[in-house]
Amino acid sequence: MAASSHTPQDAAAEARRQQRLEELCAALIRAQSAESEVRYRGHRLEWRGKAYPLRAPHLQLDSQQDDWGSCRGVADAIALRLRHHDGDLHRHWLPAPPVARLVFELLEQLRVESLVPAHQPGSRRNLHHRFSAWSNRFLASGQTESHLGLLLFSLSMMSWVQLGGGPIDEGTEHLIESTRMFLLREIGQPFGRIRRHREEQAAFAEQAQAIALTVSELVDDLQQQLADGEQDKEALEQVGKSFGLLLDLNGDGDEGGGEAGGAVARFSDGEAAYRVFTNHFDKEWQADKKVRPELLERLREQLDLRIREQGLNLNGLTKKLRRLLARPQNDGWRFGEEEGQLDGRRLSTLVTSHADRRVFKQPRDEWHANATVTILVDNSGSMRTHMGHIAMLIDLLVRALERTGARTEVLGFTTGHWNGGKPLKEWQRRGRPANPGRLNERCHLVYKGADTSWRRARRSLAALLKGDMFREGLDGEALLWAEQRLLAEDTDERLLLVISDGCPMDTATRQYNNQDILDSHLIAVADRLEREQRIRLCALGVGLDLSRYYRHNQLLDLEHSPDNRIFDEILALLGRTLRGPHAG
Amino acid sequence: MTDLLHDHPSQLRPVRELFNLDVDMQVPVFEHRDEHVPDIDPNYCFNPDVTLAILAGFTRNRRVLLQGLHGTGKSTHIEQVAARLNWPCVRVNLDGHISRLDLVGKDTIVLEEGKQITRFQEGIVPWALRRPVALIFDEFDAGRPDVMFVIQRILEQDGKFTLLDQNQVITPNPHFRLFATANTVGLGNVTGLYHGTQQINQAQMDRWNIVAKLDYLPREDEISIIQGKVPRYNDARGFELISSMVAVAELTRAGFAAGDLSTLMSPRTLIAWAENTEIFGDAALAFRLSFLNKCDEAERPLVAEYYQRCFDQELVEPQALQLTAI
C-alpha cells in the first residue's frame, strides 16, 4: 500500500494538520469566551454538546482555499459571539422571511465582532483579515453582477464599515456606491442607530430587525419588478448558497442556551435504546489461550526483534510518563538527617561522637503513579495491517507504565463471526422480530490483566500479532466492559486509551436495525464516560479522525514505524485527557 | 520584646479612612510600630470583600482562611492590612517539613555556667499565643496531619493551649489573632497543580469562622500594580503595553480553567515579564524568557496564539536564543 503513491500519506498528513488546527482554534475559543464546553466533533463546532451553527456568511470556512489568518479570524469571531450574544433574545427578534433572517444574522455577527476589546489588536486584525478575504471571494465569484447579489453585498460592506470594520478599497467603494445611496434612502434611520446600540443586544436587535425586514421587502419588490424574475430567483438561491446561510437556517443547530440538556438527554437515550438480541453466545477469552504456544513464542521473538531494531527510548518514555502520572507519596524515610524524628538505630552514635547530630530521620516523598491504564484495542479486520506497529507501541507503553508504578491492562474486542453469527440465525429462527438489536456474538479478549506483570504477560501480548481472530467491532459494548473492569480497580486515577481505525461495525446488526445503532451507542457511552469523569477516556485513531466519538483524540500516523515522535504525541494526548477542564 | 507582651491596640479608627471602604466600621489600631509590623506598600490594591473579612478577623477575633490560586497575593493581603493597623505579624510556612515540635517547642541542650543542661525552648505557637500578634499560617493545606492537630487546638477562639511536657496552660492574649492561606479549599490536589497539598479534616475546616476567596485582580488594578512596580511604564504607552500583557495573562488563566494549559501566569510572572521587558527592550523576547519557556512544549503553539491576539505580532520560536552581554 505504501508503494502505490504518495496520496494516502499526504491525505493522512493533511488530516492530522486539519485536526491540529481545529484543536488550536477550539482551545482559543475556549480561552477567549471562557466557555469550556466548546469542541470540534467530526469537523463541526459543538457547544455544550450540540452543534453550534455558524450563520453568518463570512464564518463559513473553506479548508481548501482559506488561509490560517482566516481560521484565526473565524475563531475570534465565534469566541466573541459566545461571549456577547444571548440566544433567547436573538430568537425573540429573529424575523421570519429567509432574506430578513440572513440580514439579521449578519448584523448580529458584525455587532459582536465590533465588541473586540481594545487590548487585543491581534484579534481585531484577524477579524478584519477574515471579512476582507470573504468579501474578495464574493467579488471574485461574480455574484455581485446580479441585482440581488449586489444588494446583499453592499449591505454587508456598509454594515461592516458602520460597525467599525473597513476601510474598503476604492474599487469596491465605487462598485457599491449607487446601491449604498439607494439602500440608505430606505433603511437610513435604523441604520444610523445601530452603531450607538452595539453594546446592548436588545436595542440593537430592534434596529436590526427593522433593517432586515425592509431589505427583505426590497428584495421581494425587486423580484416582482424584474420581468425575468425566474432568472433572478435562481440568482437569489445562488447568493443564498454562497452566503451559506439559507440552507443552515432550518438545520438542527439551535444555539438555545436554555435547553442545553437536550443533547445530553439524546445521548443517554442512545445508550438506553441500545439492545442486544441475545448475549447467550458472547465470549471472553484469555488471548494466549487462543494461540498455539510454539506460535506464540515465535510471534514474541518477532516482536522483540522489531522493538530492538527500532531503537526507542524506553527510559525517556518512562520519565515522561512519570511526570504525567506520578504524584508524590509519603513512602519510607530519609535517614541521617540533622532534624526530624529520632532514629533509634543511631542512638549509639550520640554516645560515641557528640558532634555528629545526624541521628534523625524524616519522611520521604516518593513519586509513584497510583493509576490504572487500560489499553483497549479494536480487533477489527482492518486493524490487521497495522498490528505490527501497534503491538510494539503497546508493549513499550505497558513496560514504561509499569516502571512508573501504574497498573496496566491490555484488552481487545471483536465479534465471533463476520456478518452476524449464531445470534443472527437464532433471530431468523424466531421469525425476525423488528428492531432486534445487536445480532453478532461479542468477543472480548484479555491480552494482559491488571494483576499480571509485563514479564508474565510478555507472551500473551504477542497474541496481538495473530490477526485471524480479527473480525468486526462493537465499540460501545467494549467501552462498557473496559469501564467495568477499570472501576473494579482500587486506584486513584483510571485512564482508558482506545486504539481504533474505524467506527463500530457489524453488518448484520446494521442491516436489520437503525443504520446508526452502533454509532450512536458508542457516542452515548463515550459521552457519558466523559461527563462522569470517573475514568479518563481518550482515543488514538489509526489513520482516522475519531473526534466524532471521543473528546480527547489523536490521529496516529502508522505509515512509518513508530518513533519517539509518536510517543510524544501520545503523551500529549494523555496529558490533555488527565488535565480535563478545571473549575474556575 | 518585653513591651510587646503588654502592648495592646489603643485606639479605634474608621475603616473608611484607613482603607477607603464604604462601611461604618471601626478597627483597633496599635499606637507603636513594633519590629514585627510589616512595611506598608503604598501601591497595594485591596480587594474590598477580602479586606472586610480580614478586618473582621482583627476586630472581632474571627479565624480567617484565605483561599486562592498561587500569586493572587493572599498573605500579602493580610500583611498589608496588618501594616495599616500597626499589628505585629508572624508568618509560618506550613510546608511538609514543619513538625509538631517546631510549633510547640522542644527540649534543647544549652550551656549554662559551663554545664550542659536541657531546657525547653518554646515553639512559635506558645510564643505567639502570649502576645498580641497575628499568626499567619501560609500553605495551610500543605501541613502534615500531626501539625494540623496542634493548630486545631488554637483554632478555638478562647481555646487554652496546654504544653503537655511543661505542665503549662497558656491562655491566649486577648489580641492574639490567627489567619491562614491555602491554594485549595481543603480538598487536596484536585487539579494536579498543587502537589503536596492535603485534604483538610472537616473538623478542622469547621473551625475557620470565615473563608474568603481571593481571585486575580480586575485588569485595571493589575495594570496599575505592574505600573507601580516598573515605573518606566507609568505613562500612556506603557499602559498600552501592560494592558496587552495582562490580556495574555488572562487568556492563559482562561486556558488553564478550560484544561488546555497546565501552566498559568500569576501576577508574579507578569511583573517579572514587565521587568524583563525593561531589561531586554523587547516584549516578545522577555515573554519567552519569563513565561513561554516554563510551558510544556506541546502547549507553546497555543500560547503563541494568545500572544498574537494581544500583541498583533507572531511569536516565532528562535532556533537558538543568544543573549548578548547586558
UniProtKB/TrEMBL annotation, chain A:
Pfam families: CobT, CobT_C. InterPro entries: CobT, CobT_VWA_dom, NorD/CobT, vWFA_dom_sf. Coiled coil: none annotated. One of its GO terms (biological process) is cobalamin biosynthetic process. Residues 359-555 form the Cobalamin biosynthesis protein CobT VWA domain. It comes from the Bacteria. This is Cobalamin biosynthesis protein CobT. It comes from Oceanimonas doudoroffii.
Automatic annotation (TrEMBL), chain B:
Pfam families: AAA_5, CobS_N. Residues 60-206 form the AAA+ ATPase domain. InterPro entries: AAA+_ATPase, ATPase_dyneun-rel_AAA, CbbQ/NirQ/NorQ/GpvN, CobS_N_dom, P-loop_NTPase. One of its GO terms (molecular function) is ATP binding. This is Cobaltochelatase subunit CobS.
